[in-house]
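Entry for the shared binder. Reason: the reviewer on the internal report wants the predicted structure included alongside the sequence.
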Amino acid sequence: MENQYVNYQNMVTTVMTGITGLEKICSHISMETQGEDLDKLGVKMKNHVFSVGIMGEFKRGKSTVINALLGQEIVPADIMPCSATLNYIRWDTEKRAEILFKDGSKKVVPVDEMTNYITKITDESAEMASSVEEAAVYYPCTFCQNGVQIVDTPGLNDDERMNEISERVIPTLDAIIMVVVPGSPFSQTEADFVRNKVMSSDLGRIIFLFNKIDTVRASQRERAISGVLDRIRKSVLDKMAAIHGEDSEEYKNAKSKMGNIKLIPVSALDCLDGKLENDQELIEKSGYMQFEKALANLLTEERGMLELLHPVNQLMSVSKEALQNMNARLSAMKMDADEFAKTQNEQLRNIEETRERKKQEIRALKNKGKTLYADLVVNVSSFYDDMEQALQMFVGGCDITDADLSTQESLNELTARLSSQINHEIEEQLSNQLERLHVNIEQQLGKDIKEFEQVSIEISSSISDIRLSIGGGIDTASAAGSTTALIGGAVAEGVANVALAATTETIIPGIGGIIAGYREHGLKGAAVGGVAGAGLSIATILAAGSIGLAGLPVAVLGGIVASFGGRAVVRKVFGKKDTAAAKTSPDMVRSMLGDSVSKTVRELRSQYVIENWLKNSCEKAYSTVADDIDHEWENTLHTLEETMSQIKIDIQMNSENRASIEKELGGYIEEINGIIDSILPIKTKLNESLNKIEEE
């Protein structure tokens, strides 16, 4: 695992070095905006942390799973079943715990005092925990030293806390470790979480950890593992069938990939003991080496490689643009002032014409988001009808007895049970519908990005023609030859090699990073291809999350369930405390629940909750893509204007100053060639790795 991280971190370091070097050069050659984008990209890479969420029901051994990963007993075992907060484990040389309270205040305490703030073990600690937002343990553990933080969560059966976690935490996770055990292999709660809180396309980012395998007799282990796999597969396929239909390509594709589900049997306790006692045989026996390898692969070979795709593409694109601008500048120095003034005036007009074409195409792309909304929204109305019908069938079959209505205590138990069950049904219906719409947006957006590439090529060609004219009609290859006498044959040869490499890699200056990413690795490549400082990524817009485990639009889902869920339905029926004395029969309760369901769905329909989410998602997704592409094109056009202004100054210099400028530009060209030489192998490695993952 450590070797994988080392290899990945070496690539990150090389890319960061390239970003820093190219950013400095951009500040000297009229490419300040590109330099600022590179700086933002570098900051984003520097601050990136891989977030690994540990999830599961109570008493699954989650604390031991975490401690075994870290190789040290950092999280006390008695915390986990009683945890009332979100807990983070992060690397630092100084051991401590930081408590963040809901009022925004912080407190630093020794690690062994953390239980007083985050558990429900005592009444005092439970009261304190209610005021705590989250806690972070800082510890010099090897695992987290590699830019990883562990996110420890309350049990999945803590509905209220898990809803909050779904909205706030799941979208930020790069990987989820779902801990299951032999005594309750993949429970209904765990299945519901996978079905309703995680996108189908993100299931590959879940590692199912079959903990406590040492408690299963050796002869029964294969059968136990097979049973858990069958339950997971059924849950996934049921979800795919509900969203896409059993005859769909999506369902058939998911069924063919069922063997790729990551279920790893382990004994976290054996691993922890092995690491504490330096017993390699016990560590190997525990199964943790396979788990750690799978986790490292997920974080580096998949997630890490994908996140490096945009910085590498950006480096190559800006490098080529910088080389072309410098070659144009070197070539233009041979022109006289009058000749260049004429060229400048003509090309400034061409830039404005290109800018106007760009504006029209960007508007057209944004309008496709509105068109898509109009196409999709017509199906939403029928969803409300289907939802009401499904809920009516459910409440009509609810198990309600006379005993449930006999006392206030039994009635309270009934209302709690019905609230939870109806919540589940509403969540199931909503999550399927929202994901279905989400997939429709993704698919159409992908098609439109692909179609828009031709427009991008045409505008990029116009930009190339402008740059060619600025340089006196000398193309990149010719410019490389013409600069031999000025800056040396080796550098000139490098420029020619760069031009060839750029053609081979299909890198077009000015083309949006989103399009470059999509061309190479589909929509997931496009999602990381946005300009560094342009704001939200595609996945953020579509799923209210990050480009990792996007999750469903959980903020919307959670808000709907909170406002219109089972509690609201049941409250309409059992709103008065004296209901138990009202001699209500089970059939009457079911009838009242049916009326309440109808009223709730009408309220949901009247507030256009799904329509509003859909409209915002469609328009924001297309606006994000369009704005990112527009940003890159505008940068290039502005740079051309600045380059012409600089050329005008160059031409007016005396021969000695010109020679100095030529030498300076030659040095920059040599530096950029060095950056490209270091980045090209990484780009090759990224594409090979990501293509392999896609084939699997």
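Summary line for the report: The first helix runs from residue 2 to 26.
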